[in-house]
Amino acid sequence: MAFFTFLIVGAIVGTTSMTTGDMPVSKMKEGELSKWRNSNDTIFYKDSAVAIFEHYEYEYNPNHRTKNVLAELCFVQIDDEPDNTNNLIRYVHTIHPHCKIQVEFKDQYDRIDIWKKRMNK
């Protein structure tokens, strides 16, 4: 689990108002980065939980231009702020610049309610 804790970062699947072409992805500068942190499998922005690391996978697409195996970090965004999606991706990209990042949203997962109950105890 410590390995996955280190693998914090995550994600693409644009919000309803964005397409992937509208999402510039650049590394965060020190001032921006200082507002983000992770603890275990959870990413926080200004001490509010934003996303949970869900899993790590490898992908190979023989049609991809590099023909390499790609590492992918997968996150579930648990807050209701669509503006955090792009910055979540940027945060993960800053820490893991060579990984593919995927972000899915909480309404797809029943386990988020379990996580919230655990956090509120």
Set down the secondary structure blueprint:
Elements: H1 2-6, H2 30-33, E1 36-39, E2 42-45, E3 48-60, E4 69-77, H3 83-95, E5 100-105, H4 111-119
Describe the 3D structure.
The chain is α+β, with helices and mostly antiparallel strands and 121 residues long. It has one domain (2-119). Helix content is 26%, strand content 30%. The chain has 4 helices and 5 strands. It has helices spanning 2-6, 30-33, 83-95, 111-119, and strands at 36-39, 42-45, 48-60, 69-77, 100-105. Strands 1-2-3-4-5 form a 5-stranded mixed beta sheet, covered by helices on one side. The two termini are 22 Å apart.
Q: Given the C-alpha coordinates, what overall shape results?
A: globular
How are the strands of the biggest sheet laid out side by side? 1-2-3-4-5
Biggest sheet overview: 5 strands, mixed
Helix content: 25-40%
Strand content: 25-35%
Rg (CA only): 14 Å
Mean pLDDT: 76
User: Topology as H/E string?
Assistant: HHEEEEHEH
Tell me the total number of β-strands: 5
What is the structural class?
alpha+beta
Distinct helical segment count: 4
Low-confidence stretches: 1-19
Number of domains: 1
* Distance, first to last CA: 22 Å
What labels would you give this structure?
single chain, 121 residues, alpha+beta, 5-stranded mixed sheet, disordered N terminus
Short description:
The chain is 26% helix and 30% strand. The chain contains four helices and five strands; from the N terminus they run ααββββαβα. It has a five-stranded mixed sheet with strand order 1-2-3-4-5, with helices on one face.
